[in-house]
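Convert to structure. Protein one:
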Amino acid sequence: MVGLTETRRHRPDRVSGSKIHTLSPPWEPPVSGLEIFFDGLLALMAVLITWFAVFSVMKLYQGQR
């Protein structure tokens, strides 16, 4: 009957056991203004490229009439 009982042992977490910590230094802001600017620029270019692709396909189909 001893083999049927379950023993509950605390297993160490894989993440907490690691020695790699990726914390930013306290003097560095989490997101800088320059990073926000370039992220916005990237989003704007993605919208512009998508619009141009849709516009080009529409013009190609329009020219087939």
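Protein two, convert as well:
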Amino acid sequence: MAVSSLTIKQHFRKLRDPRRRHRRLHHLMDIITIAICAVIAGASNWKQIEAFGRQRERWLRRFLALANGIPAHDTFQRVFARLDPVAFQVCFRDWLINLADAVDIKQIPAR
């Protein structure tokens, strides 16, 4: 079976940015990518997500624009509060399914 792109950018490209254009200091894909990576690494709140980004900013810059640096924790919170949760779930599910196929995982156990 051919596996499609595994990038977060590819799977979340259809997600609508809920912010006004003139208020966007950070790219939506930067915010989403940092948040997903942070949660995978164990972050459980917005401040921990921001801290993850700051601690790994050099590494993240290899993949992300980060034109205005790492977003503040309240930026993560505001953006995620405004995202369409169903649209986010569809993007996230599709990304996980492709990721599981790529590494030949048949089932992802729940905690």
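The chain has a mean pLDDT of 91. Residues 34 and 53 are 6 Å apart (CA to CA).
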